[in-house]
What we know:
60% of the residues lie in helices and 0% in strands. The protein is mainly α.
Amino acid sequence: MKPIGYYTAYTPGDEGLLAEMQEAWGAQFQKLNNTERLWMIVKLAEDVCAEQEDDIRASVEEAMVRLDELSTSDKLGLIEALVNQAKSPA
């Protein structure tokens, strides 16, 4: 695992929320449990989504209604794929 500074603008010695998070949970957020990590993903995604101007298509909403058809591993894989795509939109 890489430290949060690899993924964010945080560098050691900085102050602010990222520094406080690293202090509380470790440089790799290793002190968080998976429920906390997933909850943070939801909250961060909600915040970033609210900044977007695009609408959600019905087909996307309909697919999310069927999430129970997917394994936890597949759900986490989709999260990873979607995050990578959101960071480098086509």
